[in-house]
Amino acid sequence: MAFPTSVNDQITDAVTQGNTQILGSSPAIAMGNLYQATAQALANAAHNATLAQQQMYMTSQAATTTGVALLYSLGGATTGAATHKTGS
């Protein structure tokens, strides 16, 4: 059988106030965590959009360069063929 022991009222008050503080601050901490996670997700989305835009610019630049090179090569071929026909 356990014997009751007397506990100082200041100790019980300190424990009770500590538990009350934890319960009281939990919603604020949870909202802070939610805001932080949301900010991180939005930052990742913005970073991914920037990366996709950069990749799109590189692809379009490569396509433009290839198209211009093709046009230049066709121009030389047609000029050579026309010159050959004129000279004969």
In short:
The chain is an all-alpha fold and 88 residues long. It is built from one helix and no strands.
- The N- to C-terminal Cα distance equals 124 Å
Radius of gyration: 38 Å
Q: Give the percentage of residues in beta strands.
A: under 5%
Structural class: mainly alpha
Helix-strand topology string = H
Tell me what the structure shows.
Helix content is 90%, strand content 0%. The protein has one helix at 9-87. The longest helix has 79 residues, at 9-87. It is rod-shaped. The termini are far apart. The model has no long low-confidence stretch (mean pLDDT 83).
Characteristic key phrases:
single chain; 88 residues; mainly alpha
Map the helices and strands.
Blueprint lengths: L8 H79 L1
